[in-house]
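User: Predict the full complex structure for these chains.
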Amino acid sequence: MKILVPVKRVLDYNVKPRVKSDGTGVDLANVKMSMNPFDEIGVEEAIRLKEKGVATEIVAVSVGPAKAQETLRTALAMGADRAILVQTDDAVEPLAIAKILKAIADAEQPGLVILGKQAIDDDNNQTGQMLAALTGWAQGTFASAVNVDGDSVNVTREVDGGLETVKLKLPAIVTTDLRLNEPRYASLPNIMKAKSKPLDTKIPADYGVDTAPRVKVVKVSEPAARSAGIKVADVDELVAKLKAMGVHS
Amino acid sequence: MKTLVWVEHDGKAVKDATLAVVTAASKLGEVHLLVAGEGVDGVAKEAAAIAGVGKVHVADGAAFGHNLPENIAPLIADLMASHDAFLAPATTTGKNIAPRVAALLDVMQISEILSVEGEKSFTRPIYAGNAIATVESSDAKLVLTVRGTAFDKAATSGGSGSIEAVGGGSDVGISSFVGAEIAKQDRPELTSAKIIVSGGRALGSSEKYEEVIVPLADKLGAALGASRAAVDAGYVPNDYQVGQTGKIVAPQVYFAIGISGAIQHLAGMKDSKTIVAINKDEDAPIFQVADFGLVADLFSAVPELTGKI
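Assistant: Here is the predicted structure of the two-chain assembly.
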């Protein structure tokens, strides 16, 4: 079985986002960019399925600028076999990404597509579900466990209040949640080896997908700031403040 | 504009998350509801009583029993022929279903709206709430998920919606429900609690969490939360986590105990009405957002607080 793992290049999760003063977006100039953490979990899960003998080939895909090659090389260094970059400098919305992935899925015929549940930049949480709709495949979102069993996969999902398990017919779409696994670091020899793994470059038009945005970003602003309050001297003062607000047992 | 709101329920009762979505929908136009499930007469009646509701579409059948998006999304897409906007709460159920509906309709969804700015214009958080985007849709129809803490809850009585059965609906046959482990807690849910008591890594162990955090929460009738560091260290289960990658909460009072205040945690609780921080490090970033800060050793201060409150 082949596994497709879409990955996105995003602002590194340790970097505090700064809103540009002209309100057009978040400043991405000269800041550290990394693979979206949820996608990293997706790559790791695919590799584990290959190590278990469930998967035979892992294809990493990214839709983004030329520099997204670095993100794909990271996926290859972790253990993906080959990569496809669908290169564009435009911001591409989840619906258009899902359409591109659908075309790639048609060509590659994977048994599973494993995506991050959301990218930590736009926080849309849509692409996997949209791809499932377009392919007509089943979806196991927010996965904390993935067990392939013959022609189906059991996905345990992190839902509000606990866990839920669904059984999906293959091929299927899985989106990852934080507890699915802990991604490995690529070793230096594997980073070197990744440089010679195949990486195809395409453009959205190769798949006949129009990436013109449907949703216009009018402006981006800082959230309302919260100012520090007061320090209380001791527990008694805190109790008095809380009681004054009506908070007591 | 005619809106269709996904009613989130547990088979017995309408969940609170739905009520904020009704408020958001009412800012756009006429509010219709969809109750999908198996044996949901009671839920439909309850939904019809929500203030401001026009029509309640009820899809009752085994195929709709476990919120499987493969079966439910086509049903909603069909209903959207006579509606202009679909709205669901930004819960795990809403997030699972809405984008599948959006793609079937060839609509770009707008996720987790915080406000309605115009007929097609909304604000939403990006970068875990570190920035707020104002966006405008150019699609013919709207698909929205709604952040529950950003809208008032509609009243659960006073409405007189008409109940209408939706025909058909079948099992697409590509997915099935196996089972669920829903943690039973005799406490309010994190996302709807009025008071939350959260503990961080400084507690040092799950025993200390039990010993220090739980009694205070018990006394205040509060929900229990934790920072990612505390969850990762194994002090409490995953679903306690408040933060960018956990639950987004906005209670009346949030107690951050032994939590330093990493960006990731602040993103999940900074909209709380009042924040109380107890930490022994006076330079901890949590104090920059706390309304009441107490620099103290939590192991003595919290039991004292529990005793005196």
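Residues 206-220 of chain B form the longest helix (15 residues).
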